[in-house]
Design goal:
- The protein is α+β, with helices and mostly antiparallel strands and 493 residues long.
- The chain folds into two domains: 233 residues, Glutamine Phosphoribosylpyrophosphate, subunit 1, domain 1 (4-Layer Sandwich), CATH 3.60.20; 158 residues, Rossmann fold, CATH 3.40.50.
- The chain has 17 helices and 25 strands.
- The strands form six sheets. Strands 2-5-4-6-3-12-11-13 form an eight-stranded mixed β-sheet. The chain has a seven-stranded antiparallel β-sheet with strand order 1-7-8-9-10-14-15, with helices on one face.
- A hairpin with a 4-residue loop joins strand 9 and strand 10.
- Helix 4 packs across helix 5.
- The longest helix has 15 residues.
- It is globular and about 70 Å long.
- The two termini are 38 Å apart.
- Bound molecules: iron/sulfur cluster (SF4).
- One of its GO terms (molecular function) is amidophosphoribosyltransferase activity.
- Catalyzes the formation of phosphoribosylamine from phosphoribosylpyrophosphate (PRPP) and glutamine.
- Its cofactor is [4Fe-4S] cluster; Mg(2+).
- It is an enzyme of class 2 (transferase).
Length: 493
Amino acid sequence: MPHEVKLPAVKLWGGDFYNEGVTGEILFDKLKEECGVFGVFGHPEASHLCYYGLHALQHRGQESGGICTTDGSQFHYHRGMGLVKEVFDNDKLASLKGSIAIAHVRYSTAGESKLANAQPLVFKYREGDLAVATNGNIVNAPEIRKDLERQGSIFQTSSDTEVVAHLIARSKHDDIVEAAREALVKLNGAYAFLFMTNGKLIAARDPHGLRPFVLGKLGDAYVFASETCAFDAVGAEYVRDIEPGELLILDGSGLKEDRFTEKTKRAVCAMEYIYFSRPDSDIDAVNVHSARKRMGRRLAIESFVDADIVTGVPDSSISAAIGYAEQTGIPYELGLIKNRYTGRTFIQPSQELREQGVKMKLSAVRGVVEGKRVVMIDDSIVRGTTSLRIVNLLREAGAKEVHVRISSPPFKNPCFYGIDTPSRKELIGAQKTIEEIRKAINADSLHFLSKEGLVESIGHLHGETQGGHCTACFDNMYPTQVPDEETAACGCD
Ligand code: SF4
């Protein structure tokens, strides 16, 4: 007789939702943002604050959104596919009662875009209700999941978050804080976690602080967010960044600052500064727009070229382009315009439609670039296909020369920490020399920012001697153990 293991009950909630269905983004050769989390403790309008907070974090995920609140005795929640403004309306928000809430916007890799994975995930386990929202990726989640399945656990989603919920449910500790602590030390990866019960809100940041996570105050209430721009949206005051390995607990007795591990080494994702985060956010006390401007200035020092105008690929490269223009004295011009109203369309990923997708999103301004030698600043090159199209847009609009300057080093290695990146085989930075890339994107010249230039532009976070950043996608120096690329799947959970 096989030994029978008695399992604690863990059950995914059902619940109402609408707006189901997968919408497709216009395909664009850019890295995909991960997810965003927002939390409130002690505010009577918690669900409305979450709505505005999520709205400010929409750039971090556009596939689904969700809010879960508690009135102290039961949960109220709503999740849906689509943008925050499509998922929620006044009636939905009014039905989310209570002064404690956690909320989430999600981006997922293709094929995983389904409502079951939308967050917050809400569970019933032996100690009551539990809601979980996270931004990041648990590198060892597949192993933990297999282990749990061998022991009898049944999973209802493909989300790493459910793995963590099972770890909590199986903990020998009844206390949620101790159970969360026990689960967190088993994880390897990048995460900003929010856990909620009917009386507690718990926040945890991974031991490397890979994903950003901040604490704020709004009157007597506490708020949490992936980025500080969400605090500005709700009028909250930034208090501080949550430290790597830190565990913050809020309940009726106030805020308790604790840690789940002392083994920490700061390695904040450099791509948050280069591309992902909003320019008005501060990450680990460094403003994103200012860091990008310094990247542009440094790029100009490292790779000056005589030209008539500097232009940035909107939106994420505009700050670096301003920096490049300031440093060189070459005027900054709006040579490229982004069409903000393309919306979300159902298109097939054929080559022809990809081309059209870029034209729908970006236009070159003929009156600005015609007959000019143009320096085009972009934040990164992934496969090279988008860069080629943008260079060609500028040429078609009459640019005499197009000099491409990239405000980050060549992107050579995949990310395992919640950023959806193609495999090394598809990364042009891993496959070609800089001269080969220049030819492939049809540029007159091409330069990338050096890694030293990048680190100095961001600055040494909290005085860390080695900078305190993760730069693995440029230098292959991963801050944690990573799996074999061929078997790994990484998207934001
Ligand atoms: S590998 Fe790159 S994208 Fe991933 S966390 Fe590190 S710096 Fe960020």
